[in-house]
Amino acid sequence: MTTLDEVGKLWPALTRAEKAQVLQWAARDIGEAFPGIESTPTVCGGDPCIVRTRIAVWVLEQARRQGLNDAQLLAAYPTLRADDLANAWGFVRSHQPEIDQQIRENEAA
Q1: Which residues of the chain have pLDDT under 50?
Q2: Do residues 89 and 61 share a domain?
Q3: Helix, strand or coil for residue 88?
Q4: CA distance 64 to 62
Q5: Which CATH number is 102's domain given?
Q6: pLDDT score of 23
């Protein structure tokens, strides 16, 4: 069974709100639009950060690679929301080489 087949089987069980959330994730992923992520030259060296914060996406991804889950990240960073993490993970998927490079650069520092 393909992943698409699995999604097709699950789709009818989702609420309208859940379907809307899935569509929002798909639109962000396809469009590479991440409204919750911004890069500002004077903030964190221009690294992509979560809006309203100075939390760089690479920091979150590095923590995730070290074993922290979303709940732990939300507890560690009280200003973050679940949507912020969804935006961050979508950004990471679309910008993997950039994020990998930022992690390497900051590990070497």
Answers
A1: none
A2: yes
A3: helix
A4: 5
A5: 1.10.10.10
A6: 85
Residue with tokens 């080489």: 97
Is residue 66 located within the same domain as residue 103? yes
> What pLDDT is stored for residue 16 in this prediction?
92
What is the span of the domain harbouring residue 19? 1-31
pTM of full prediction above 0.90:
no
13 and 42 share a domain?
no
Say if CB 57 and CB 96 are below 8 A apart. no
pLDDT attached to residue 53: 94
Give the model's pLDDT for residue 78: 95
- Alpha-helical regions (H) of 11-77: 16-31, 57-65, 70-76
For 50, phi then psi, to 5°, come to -70, 130
Cα distance between residue 99 and residue 90, in whole Å: 12
